[in-house]
Amino acid sequence: MSRPALMVAALLLISTAMAAGSLEVIEPWAKASGAQQVEVYLTLRNDGSEQDRLIGASSPLASSVKLLTTVQLGSVSSVQPLKSIGIPAGGQQVLAPGHTHIEVGLKRGLQVGETLPVMLQFEKAGQKKIEVTLKEQRD
Questions:
Q1: Which of 37, 55, 50, 51 shows the shortest CA–CA distance to 116?
Q2: Confidence class of residue 3 from pLDDT cuts 50, 70 and 90?
Q3: Please, how many CA atoms are within 13 Å of residue 23, restricted to the half-sphere of its CB?
Q4: 32-51 pLDDT, tens digit each
Q5: According to the 3-state scheme, what is the secondary structure of the chain?
Q6: Of 39, 70, 43, 38, which Cα lies nearest the Cα of 54?
Q7: 83, exposed or middle or buried, with CB in 10 Å at 0-12, 13-18, 19+?
Q8: How far apart are CA 115 and CA 118, in angstroms?
Q9: Which residues face 104 on adjacent strands?
Q10: What is d(CA 8, CA 4) in angstroms, rounded to the nearest whole number?
Q11: What are all long-range contacts of 109-113, with beta carbons under 8 Å and residues at least 24 apart?
Q12: CA–CA separation, 8 vs 19, rounded Å?
């Protein structure tokens, strides 16, 4: 490989590492309901200079994983699918009950105190593995 090509490859690798390092997942948790489905909540903080997007998630314990948001139309609320969730540069996105969240259909029920491994997929930061603790409610 030529020297310029090596330099370009190195710069791409460094920029990818910097993007991944600027995104932080804070306090992931899920409400334990005993059901085969849980909603995952967390805060995504982007200390980088560019917006990023959560574009998907997966788990070895999941039969399905969806990005969802709750929409209020008058007195009726409904859950709508999302293709992605934006995280602004220098800002954060909070996934919380009654709002935007990650819905995980489980292959088996989980109990309070158990953890759910989840792989988050970001547009720029790539993949980030997290452990989601099941709780009765948030501390």
A1: 37
A2: low
A3: 26
A4: 776 789 999 999 999 999 99
A5: CCHHHHHHHHHHHHHHHHHHHCEEEEEEEEECCCCCEEEEEEEEEECCCCCEEEEEEECCCEEEEEEEEEEEECCEEEEEECCCEEECCCEEEEECCCCCEEEEEECCCCCCCCEEEEEEEECCCEEEEEEEEEECCCC
A6: 43
A7: exposed
A8: 9
A9: 38, 65
A10: 6
A11: 109/34, 109/35, 109/36, 110/32, 110/38, 110/61, 110/134, 111/32, 111/34, 112/32, 112/136
A12: 16
pLDDT single digits (tens) 93-136: 999 999 999 999 999 989 899 999 999 999 999 999 999 999 98
Residue indicated by tokens 């948790």: 29
Domain boundaries, the chain: 3-135
In terms of pLDDT, which residue wins out, 19 or 82?
Answer: 82
Q: Give me 80's structure tokens.
A: 């709508």
Candidate CATH numbers 2.60.40.1890, 3.40.50.720, 3.30.565.10, 2.40.40.10; the one for domain 3-135: 2.60.40.1890
Check if the beta carbon of residue 97 is closer than 8 Å to that of residue 79.
Answer: no
